[in-house]
Amino acid sequence: MSFLDNLTQQLGLMAWPLIICSVLTVMILVERLVQVLLCTGVGKTKVNAILAKQNRHDDCALDKLTEELKQQRPLLYKGIAMLIAHRHFTKPLREDAAAIWLIQKRTELRSGLRLLSLIGVISPLLGLLGTVLGLIEMFSGISQSTGSVTPSDLADGLGLAMRTTAAGLLIALPAITGAQLLGLWADNVTAKLEHCLNRCNLWLEGMNIEVESGKTTACDTCEQNPAVNGKAL
């Protein structure tokens, strides 16, 4: 409690609002950073390698792969598992399911960022309000003083006023920066998820796009694949 009492004395009336803003900022940043660690680590190359080993007509193997991917933490694995689980539906329906899933995950990835941006805007205003209140209190004390005003009296009042502004800016800087960086990360992850889900959807249709060569080839040698047995589409 001595730390909180000291902080209250240093920041004046705006101490508790600034403390609440700082605690919320730390909580959101830590939770979002943990989410970053849990969602990253798997690239499209690894997913392509997994799909290349599968036969899209082998339901038993695909069901087993779906269950395995569902247990993984990366979002990309969960998205691929969702598409494979809906492989018996038509391609437009799978695209709609993937779009709904992507919107849901994008919302989850950006969770808390609006509050973080709001804290980044409010904190400097709270600090400025504390500065104004500190100056009002200082001049009120000076007006009631019967003796001469010493530099120490002015220094104490101005110090209290300036500390609240500094505290507000110290809270706002990581809040705004974190919100912007985490927002860019969420958009980047969503774009990669969309790209990989589109490739998986094409794979379920029997197409395998080679990005490096720009070629489109058949993804398996099953007899049901007309691109392999020479039958016309």
Automatic annotation (TrEMBL):
Transmembrane annotation, as ranges: 12-30, 115-140, 160-185
Keywords annotated in UniProt: Cell membrane, Membrane, Protein transport, Transmembrane, Transmembrane helix, Transport
Membrane-protein topology: Multi-pass membrane protein
Subcellular locations according to the entry: Cell membrane; Membrane
One of the GO biological process terms: protein import
Pfam family, one: MotA_ExbB
Any single Gene Ontology cellular-component annotation: plasma membrane
Name of the protein described by the UniProt record: Biopolymer transporter ExbB
Organism the protein comes from: Photobacterium leiognathi subsp. mandapamensis (Photobacterium mandapamensis)
